[in-house]
């Protein structure tokens, strides 16, 4: 994740950076879901049966803590379909692990909203654009209104722990401005914008990805909003995901605005280190498979067959060891790129999807376009 709002504020105001001294686990506790989203990397549906028992999950949680996991993002499927999800989150918090809930919002009701806010440190609700676009993208008419109801309900408690999760695709691209307007109108304190990764239904629908010109326009618009919110002291945090090259464009824009602080920002970005799959990020899917990130085409072990600590810490595979090299030894345009130590090569999953090689360059990288000055801010 690239926390551009936090970086902007911390560098300009000389505040110590937010450093993750540990790892983030994205855990798909279930593959069951009440929606059928076009971009779903886990191909979730309502017929899925949970593989991981409550006991197995509870047994694994302390081992995640011992292995340096500081955050768990509760994902799915729709995690609220599991009856034990609150017990799992409570146990994680007892262990000192921060809990994030990623939900479509349809199971958030007046009967459980307060409990959700009390249980989770943060709740991200997926919104994919205007009502028409969202419903078509999510595969259920009326889902937009239900998700908005969930946001309004959570907001009614005066919580600042709510955010919007939005994925950029050809289908949703025209709604980017709408998403920011929605956050402003609903006083939502965080917007997380994910770039598409070719996995699951996202791989089946590879042609749904935006082109590089659209991506440049979109990211420039996102950066414009980050500057606007900082200047106006609007308390909306912006984070982008699955496109570490956004940091390069941000650095370029930041340097033009704050030339005296360019080297300081570059140092912060080098400290951040770009793509962290297999290093500070891991995924446990609904079958117990451990992967370097949720989209990764190769598993490195399974908690039903091996201990988590053996897989992640004590006996890592060669693939995992190679992913942890910094910077990574990559091929193609990445090999001699002067920005490699900032972005760390971007998504290995996209590279594999297109080239069949984990170590090739990320095909969505737009650094060449930046350097050729094909930058435009209009969306």
Q: How would you describe this structure to a colleague?
A:
Helices cover 39% and strands 13% of the residues. The protein has 379 residues and is an alpha/beta fold. It has a ten-stranded mixed sheet. The protein has helices at 4-12, 54-66, 85-94, 113-119, 131-138, 143-155, 176-186, 201-204, 212-231, 246-257, 262-272, 308-314, 318-323, 340-343, 348-355, 367-371; strands at residues 23-28, 69-75, 98-103, 122-126, 162-168, 190-195, 237-241, 281-284, 289-291, 301-302. The two termini are 23 Å apart. It is built from 16 helices and ten strands. The longest helix is centred in the middle third of the chain and has 20 residues, at 212-231.
Computed CA radius of gyration, to the nearest angstrom? 20 Å
Shape: globular
Distance between the termini: 23 Å
Low-confidence stretches: 374-379
Q: How many helices in DSSP terms?
A: 16
Strands of the widest sheet, in order across it, are 7-6-5-4-3-2-1-8-9-10
Mean pLDDT: 91
Biggest sheet, in brief?
10 strands, mixed
- The count of DSSP E runs of length 2 or more, i.e. the number of strands, is 10
Tell me the structural class. Answer: alpha/beta
Beta content comes to 5-15%
Compressed to H and E, one letter per element, the order equals HEHEHEHEHHEHEHHEHHEEEHHHHH
Estimate percent helicity.
Answer: 25-40%
């Amino acid at each position: 994740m690239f926390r551009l709002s936090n970086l902007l504020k911390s560098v300009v105001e000389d505040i110590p950076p937010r450093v993750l001294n540990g790892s983030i686990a994205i855990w798909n506790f279930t593959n069951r879901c009440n929606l059928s989203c076009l971009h779903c990397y886990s191909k979730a549906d309502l017929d899925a049966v949970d593989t991981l028992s409550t006991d197995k999950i509870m047994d694994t949680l302390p081992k995640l803590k011992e292995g340096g996991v500081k955050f768990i993002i509760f994902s799915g499927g729709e995690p609220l379909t599991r009856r034990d999800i609150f017990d799992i989150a409570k146990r994680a918090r007892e262990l000192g692990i921060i809990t994030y809930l990623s939900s479509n919002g349809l199971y958030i009701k007046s009967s459980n909203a307060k409990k959700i806010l009390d249980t989770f440190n943060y709740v991200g609700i997926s919104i994919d654009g205007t009502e028409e676009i969202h419903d078509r993208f999510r595969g259920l008419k009326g889902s937009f209104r239900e998700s908005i109801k969930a946001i309004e309900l959570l907001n009614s408690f005066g919580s600042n722990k709510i955010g919007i999760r939005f994925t950029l695709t050809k289908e949703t691209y025209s709604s980017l401005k709408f998403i920011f307007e929605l956050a402003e109108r609903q006083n939502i304190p965080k917007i997380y914008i994910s770039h598409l990764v070719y996995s699951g239904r996202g791989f089946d629908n590879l042609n749904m990805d935006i082109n590089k010109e659209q991506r440049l326009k979109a990211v420039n618009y996102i950066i414009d909003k980050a500057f606007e919110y900082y200047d106006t002291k609007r308390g909306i945090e912006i984070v982008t995901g699955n496109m570490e090259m956004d940091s390069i464009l941000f650095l370029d824009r930041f340097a033009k605005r704050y030339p005296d602080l360019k080297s300081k920002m570059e140092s912060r970005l080098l400290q951040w280190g770009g793509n962290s799959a297999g290093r500070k990020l891991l995924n446990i899917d609904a079958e117990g498979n451990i992967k370097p990130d949720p989209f990764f085409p190769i598993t490195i072990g399974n908690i039903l067959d091996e201990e988590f600590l053996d897989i992640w810490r004590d006996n890592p595979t060669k693939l995992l060891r190679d992913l942890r090299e910094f910077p990574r030894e990559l091929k193609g345009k990445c090999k001699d790129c002067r920005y490699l130590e900032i972005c760390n090569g971007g998504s290995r999953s996209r590279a594999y999807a297109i080239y069949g090689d984990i170590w090739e360059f990320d095909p969505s990288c737009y650094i060449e376009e930046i350097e050729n000055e094909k930058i435009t801010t209009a969306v």
